[in-house]
Structures are given as structure tokens and as C-alpha cells.
Automatic annotation (TrEMBL):
Its cofactor is Zn(2+). Coiled coil: none annotated. Keywords: Metal-binding, Transferase, Zinc. It comes from the Bacteria. GO terms for molecular function: 3-keto-5-aminohexanoate cleavage activity; metal ion binding. InterPro entries: Aldolase_TIM (IPR013785), BKACE (IPR008567). PANTHER family: 3-KETO-5-AMINOHEXANOATE CLEAVAGE ENZYME, 3-KETO-5-AMINOHEXANOATE CLEAVAGE ENZYME-RELATED. This is 3-keto-5-aminohexanoate cleavage protein.
Length: 274
């Protein structure tokens, strides 16, 4: 079985220090959290950035400062900026970090309710626009799918040339508005992607570790981190993203699955050398 790629989604756009005081906002806090995750075994950092007061931003300049600072401490790690940003941002605002030519970036494959009155909008034309920019810039998209219909969308746009093979999916499961996080939901998504595709699973809240276990067994890959879940176990806040990654590493070890280095992750994902 392929080695396990662990992605750490260290920050997100919605989770706050009120949920867990270790959620990073400042440059120094982002470096601390990325470093803890990489030292524990993460090979990819899925990155959102904030202003120092916690306000989400897609500013290219802010991304550059934080990416450069993370790179100083973790020179090999794959940094995957978000193009989802936060609900309500414009397409061009969201695309700014792709101008920095990262190896990967997320590409959200559909619109969904995002709790309360929030709608995370990704129309077909938005997805095409983002897909084109990523092809132009040589960026491998992580196809974020929050429901089965979003896999259909990705496959359709792949046929039309907006997304290239081999595709790499991220099943984001358990969002209020998307697919649930039960094993049958996972099996449904997992069985719906092409044979040459890879996937990672990001379980939200209490789904994080059960779905990680399923992906480890199945040969898929795993995303954990404060963006998705702030608890190490029921009622126990994680002290760092590294603690969440370390738990996945322990699970993988118990199940006999080796963990990929960033170089091995690049090979598995077919990332272009920079
Ligand atoms: N913050 C969400 C609205 C992504 O990173 O591409 C979108 C999100 C997805 O987190
Ligand atoms: Zn994200």
C-alpha cells in the first residue's frame, strides 16, 4: 500500500481562539502550528491566513509572509493554500495565493449551505475559472468535495479540460450542509472517483478520527487540524495541530501503514518540481 500522506489544516477561516486558544492567527503562531504538525509527520500544510486579530484574508502579501516564514522552519513541506477563503469573498480575492505559484491549492467543487444563513458559493463557472487559472499556473488542485454531487461536477469539468488527471480529491465530510461522516458516506464517495485518482479525507468534528481510520485502512490519505476539529478526544482540546497529527501517526503505526515524507508525498501526487 502507498505510504500515508497526512495533511494538517492548521488554521481555517472559521475556527477561533474561543474554540481553542491554540488556533493560530499571527505569523509566529502559524509557524509554531505548522512546525508542530510537520515534526509530528504531516507532509502537507493546508493553509488559510488571518490578520493578527483573526480576520480571514486571502491577501497575497499576507500569504507570502506566512509561507516564507513557514518555509524557513520547514523547508521541505508542501504548502497548499486555500482558494476557498471565507464565505462571501469574491473569486479574484480567493485566487490571490495562486499568484505565488504554490505546488498545490484547493479547488472547491460546488456550492453548499455553510451553517445559519451562510452559503459557500462555487458556481460551475467559478470552478471552471479556478480550474483554468490552476492549469495556467501549474498548480495541482486538491478537489474539495463536500457532497457526492461535487464529484460529478469535478468529473464533468475534467472531461471538458478544466481539471487534469490524475485527480486528487479531498472528501470533506460532516459539514453542516454537506454529506455526513458515517462509514457508508465514506464508502459512497470513495467508490465514486476514478481508479487513477487519489484522495484524502477530512472528517469534521467527531468524524475526524473514525474517518482517518477508514482512509488508513483503505489506502487513502488523511487530513486533520484545527480547521476541521479542535479536540484530541471527547472533551479534550488538542494543545497543537501536532497533537492531532501525532494521533493519526499512532493509528497508522498500529495498522502497519507507513507515513510519507514530503518528498514521497510529491511523488505519490505527481507534483511538478519547482
Ligand atoms: N472556509 C470555507 C468557506 C477551502 O479551503 O478550499 C472554505 C474552505 C475550503 O475552507
Ligand atoms: Zn480550508
Amino acid at each position: 500500500m502507498e505510504k500515508l500522506i497526512i495533511t494538517a489544516a492548521i488554521c481555517g477561516a472559521e475556527v477561533l481562539k474561543e474554540h481553542n486558544p491554540a488556533v493560530p492567527y499571527t505569523v509566529e503562531e502559524c509557524v509554531r502550528e505548522a512546525k508542530s504538525a510537520v515534526e509530528a509527520g504531516a507532509s502537507i500544510i493546508h493553509l488559510h491566513v488571518r490578520e493578527d486579530d483573526g480576520t480571514p484574508t486571502q491577501s497575497k502579501e499576507r500569504f507570502k509572509v506566512i509561507i516564507d516564514a513557514i518555509r524557513k522552519e520547514c523547508p521541505d513541506v508542501i504548502i497548499q493554500p486555500s482558494t476557498g477563503g471565507a464565505v462571501g469573498m469574491t473569486n479574484d480575492e480567493r485566487l490571490q495565493p495562486t499568484e505565488l505559484m504554490p505546488e498545490m491549492a484547493t479547488l472547491d467543487c460546488g456550492t453548499l449551505n455553510f451553517g445559519g444563513d451562510e452559503i459557500f458559493e462555487n458556481t460551475e463557472n467559478t470552478i471552471k475559472y479556478f480550474g483554468e487559472r490552476m492549469i495556467e499556473r501549474g498548480i495541482k488542485p486538491e478537489l474539495e468535495v463536500f457532497d457526492k454531487s461535487m464529484i460529478e461536477m469535478a468529473l464533468r469539468l475534467h472531461k471538458k479540460g478544466y481539471i487534469q488527471s490524475p485527480m486528487h480529491f479531498d472528501f470533506v465530510m460532516g459539514v453542516n450542509g454537506g454529506i455526513g461522516g458515517d462509514l457508508r458516506d465514506f464508502v459512497f464517495l470513495r467508490g465514486s472517483i476514478p481508479a487513477d485518482a487519489t484522495y484524502t479525507v477530512a472528517g469534521i468534528g467527531r468524524y475526524e478520527f473514525p474517518l482517518a481510520m477508514a482512509a488508513i485502512i483503505d489506502g487513502g490519505h488523511v487530513r486533520v487540524g484545527f480547521e476541521d476539529n479542535v479536540y484530541l478526544s471527547k472533551g479534550v482540546l488538542a494543545k497543537s495541530n501536532g497533537e492531532l497529527v501525532a494521533k493519526v501517526v499512532r493509528m497508522a503505526k498500529e495498522l502497519g501503514r507507513e507515513v510519507a515524507t514530503p518528498a514521497e508525498a510529491r511523488q505519490i501526487l505527481g507534483l511538478k518540481a519547482r
